[in-house]
Amino acid sequence: MHARTFLPALAVVSVLALAACSGAAEADTPASPSSGGPAAESVTVEDAWVKSAECGMSAAFGQIENTGDADVTVVSVASPASTMLELHETVENESGEMVMREKDGGFTIPAGGVLALEPGANHIMLMGLTAPAVAGDEVTFTLTFSDDSTLELTAPAKDYSGANETYAGGEGHEGMDMGGDDADAGGH
């Protein structure tokens, strides 16, 4: 082989080898949230807690932070502490009362933003507690995002009396005892 033919062929083989190595290295590196990785990788939950309750219903609160560069959406939540969970928002109805209802489409946390889950506002509703949520107990949850990725978290139960909302549209929540001082008001 002549030097003029050999050098260009060597250059092509070198470029292909480097490209192959580069591709292999990228495949071994987990995707980061900023490069389109699973939504759960860009989310953290801080200050999570659950309202203590003897039976019936309770609610979970905290700060959900999205450190990624794309919006993420929590579409559902599961917990062994409850037979039915919903993502809830609190809104004002036609008569000016604050009412709770399931949040259509889930909770969207903007890129680089925080979603506050608070009494009297957005929250996770636990209906049909499987056991009392006693102050100091740890409650585990699995958040599921729109891309089917999941995030496990644990939140302590705390005593809390407040946020006396009612339910919108008779969604089958009435009559469930929340426990605590505000059980008759239907709030949490």
UniProtKB/TrEMBL annotation:
Gene3D superfamilies: PCu(A)C copper chaperone. PROSITE patterns: PROKAR_LIPOPROTEIN (PS51257). Keywords: Signal. Residues 1-27 form the signal peptide. Residues 162-188 are annotated as: Disordered. The keyword Signal applies. SUPFAM superfamilies: DR1885-like metal-binding protein (SSF110087). Residues 179-188 have a biased composition (Acidic residues). Pfam families: PCuAC. The keyword Cytoplasm does not apply. This is Copper chaperone PCu(A)C. It comes from Cellulomonas pakistanensis.
